């Protein structure tokens, strides 16, 4: 029935390209005709020697770090304070979830305005302090920090919703019981609520890391990877150096590295941390 | 008691601060479209002193905005439709017809869920080109459907397996064919999961940027995500025009969110969690 069609689509557009990426990554090829210039692993060597690639890897790592250390705790604190059902809480939930449904390109443009040295929030400060205008997104040292702020803004609401759904599933009598036993608010959160929503937390960590590895859409409207390639992520690096220049071999090598990172992470995470879930 | 009240106030101040962090950029965007450039410079976040309507008017007068929205809508509509049809049919096969090796085939689909779409984007691009789908809306729709299959099959299958098996037995006794059973029994019972998957695919497709960027070359085919970046390229730092344009283009998503909140939250978080 429909199985062969689904299999065909899936194989052609999802599975096959991954294999081909591995194959093409051993050639120097512009995508026309047959790939013929076999260069062994020189694409990979070039990649690992490229300073901009190091920066991209390091930036991707920073996104993961900020997600785990700032974004998820923030989402959890907010979820704990507004998970109970009331109209004010619903309103806050609505507001906090709003950035998540915006397209990354739109969100990026909004923040590009906010960070603009002539118009936005930075301009207010430099005027107040009477200093020179400061183009934050063009500042090598600070541009990526700005991107991290936008990432937290965009995605914390999503993780908050996961935690809220989990918290609403925690039986009320357990919390009551802990109160009767003399647990403080903090103890009730730490020893009762958090252990009970652990599965929600493991899932949200999983998504924030896989998402971090694939960040692209937000980078383009904010900085496009600049200034001087200081704000690339793995995918924006792939786009800039592989796709726009049609370096099929080189771009595929980046893709293979990205793929390996994702697969290694997903498999180890699922077999160690998420295994007791199934 | 006093301490409790303090905590409560602290909590609300904290929540208001975060809400401000979320909302101020959005309000600034909406209001920015009503300001002249000079005013935008001196007063980026407050209400405009003089309301200028020409920037919004020009966004609409341009006309291309409708074409962009139409293209995005067509892509999203067919992505949702095809994902739902192919996804439910395939999941139905997995949950009701046991054949040799079906487990392997099922797992094959699940593995695909972990593949980052961006990793194989160059070979995918070449494939789309070689199939002659470059610069056509179906060149965006078909890969989107293919990438949505893994998780939609997973969600549909786990939903179908929870339906009581007596239903199927009863239908078989009554001489109901697989197709009829699927159409008259399974689908009507599956509206919640259809909504979940549908919303997930819809939002992902509406906001997609990388794939259309790769596949589409002519402006007549552009979805709004490409249009917005092009508009920004055209008007550079005339931020009032750009903010007006951003406001207009994100309005459909926000209106949709306000009306279908429940389904969207369930679709985006539930889809992710169960998937």
TrEMBL record, chain B:
<feature type="transmembrane region" description="Helical">
    <location>
        <begin position="242"/>
        <end position="260"/>
    </location>
</feature>
<keyword id="KW-0812">Transmembrane</keyword>
<keyword id="KW-1133">Transmembrane helix</keyword>
<feature type="domain" description="ABC transmembrane type-1">
    <location>
        <begin position="69"/>
        <end position="260"/>
    </location>
</feature>
<keyword id="KW-0472">Membrane</keyword>
<dbReference type="InterPro" id="IPR035906">
    <property type="entry name" value="MetI-like_sf"/>
</dbReference>
<keyword id="KW-0813">Transport</keyword>
<dbReference type="GO" id="GO:0055085">
    <property type="term" value="P:transmembrane transport"/>
</dbReference>
<feature type="transmembrane region" description="Helical">
    <location>
        <begin position="12"/>
        <end position="34"/>
    </location>
</feature>
<comment type="similarity">
    <text>Belongs to the binding-protein-dependent transport system permease family.</text>
</comment>
<protein>
    <submittedName>
        <fullName>Carbohydrate ABC transporter membrane protein 2, CUT1 family</fullName>
    </submittedName>
</protein>
<dbReference type="Pfam" id="PF00528">
    <property type="entry name" value="BPD_transp_1"/>
</dbReference>
<feature type="transmembrane region" description="Helical">
    <location>
        <begin position="73"/>
        <end position="94"/>
    </location>
</feature>
<keyword id="KW-1003">Cell membrane</keyword>
<dbReference type="GO" id="GO:0005886">
    <property type="term" value="C:plasma membrane"/>
</dbReference>
<feature type="transmembrane region" description="Helical">
    <location>
        <begin position="106"/>
        <end position="126"/>
    </location>
</feature>
<dbReference type="InterPro" id="IPR000515">
    <property type="entry name" value="MetI-like"/>
</dbReference>
<feature type="transmembrane region" description="Helical">
    <location>
        <begin position="138"/>
        <end position="160"/>
    </location>
</feature>
<feature type="transmembrane region" description="Helical">
    <location>
        <begin position="181"/>
        <end position="206"/>
    </location>
</feature>
């Amino acid at each position: 029935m429909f199985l062969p069609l689904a299999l065909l689509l899936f194989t052609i557009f999802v599975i096959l390209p991954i294999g081909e990426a591995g194959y093409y990554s051993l050639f120097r090829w512009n995508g026309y005709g047959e790939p013929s210039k076999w260069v062994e692993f020189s694409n990979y060597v070039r990649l690992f020697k490229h300073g901009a690639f190091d920066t991209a890897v390091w930036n991707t790592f920073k996104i993961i770090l900020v997600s785990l250390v700032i974004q998820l705790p923030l989402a959890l604190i907010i979820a704990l304070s507004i998970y109970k059902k009331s109209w004010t809480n619903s309103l806050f939930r609505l507001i906090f979830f709003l950035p998540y449904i915006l397209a990354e390109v739109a969100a990026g443009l909004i923040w590009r305005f906010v960070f603009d040295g002539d118009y936005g929030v930075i301009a207010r400060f430099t005027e107040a302090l009477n200093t020179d205008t400061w183009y934050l997104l063009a500042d090598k040292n600070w541009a990526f920090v700005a991107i991290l702020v936008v990432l937290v803004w965009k995605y914390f609401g999503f993780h908050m919703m996961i935690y809220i759904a989990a918290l609403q599933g925690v039986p009320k009598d357990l919390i009551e019981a802990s109160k009767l036993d003399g647990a403080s608010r903090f103890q009730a959160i730490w020893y009762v609520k958090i252990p009970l929503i652990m599965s929600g937390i493991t899932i949200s960590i999983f998504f924030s890391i896989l998402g971090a590895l694939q960040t692209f859409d937000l980078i383009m409207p904010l900085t496009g990877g600049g200034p001087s390639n200081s704000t690339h992520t793995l995918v924006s690096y792939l786009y800039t150096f592989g796709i726009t220049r049609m370096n099929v071999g080189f771009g595929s090598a980046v893709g293979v590295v990205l793929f390996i990172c994702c697969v290694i992470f997903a498999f180890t995470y699922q077999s160690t941390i998420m295994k007791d879930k199934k | 008691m006093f301490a409790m009240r303090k905590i409560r106030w602290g909590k609300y101040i904290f929540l208001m601060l975060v809400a401000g962090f979320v909302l101020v950029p959005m309000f600034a965007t909406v209001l920015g479209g009503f300001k002249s450039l000079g005013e935008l410079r001196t007063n980026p976040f407050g209400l405009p002193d003089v309301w200028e309507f020409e920037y919004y008017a020009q966004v609409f007068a341009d006309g291309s905005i409708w074409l962009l929205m139409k293209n995005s809508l067509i892509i999203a509509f067919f992505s949702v439709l095809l994902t739902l049809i192919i996804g439910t049919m395939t999941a139905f096969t997995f949950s009701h017809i046991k054949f040799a090796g079906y487990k392997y085939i099922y797992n094959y689909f699940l593995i695909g869920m972990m593949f980052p779409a961006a990793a194989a984007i160059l070979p995918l691009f070449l494939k789309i080109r070689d199939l002659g789908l470059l610069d056509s809306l179906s060149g965006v729709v078909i890969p989107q459907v293919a990438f949505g299959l893994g998780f939609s099959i997973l969600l549909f299958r786990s939903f179908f397996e929870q339906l009581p098996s007596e239903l199927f037995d009863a239908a078989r006794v009554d001489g109901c064919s697989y197709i009829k059973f699927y159409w008259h029994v399974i689908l009507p019972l599956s509206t919640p999961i259809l909504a979940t998957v549908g919303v997930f695919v819809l939002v992902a497709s509406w906001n997609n940027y990388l794939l259309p960027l790769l596949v589409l070359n002519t402006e007549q085919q552009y979805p709004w995500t490409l249009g917005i970046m092009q508009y920004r390229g055209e008007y550079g730092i005339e931020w009032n025009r750009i903010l007006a344009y951003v406001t207009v283009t994100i309005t459909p998503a926000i209106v949709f969110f306000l009306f279908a909140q429940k389904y969207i939250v369930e679709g985006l978080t539930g889809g992710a969690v169960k998937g």
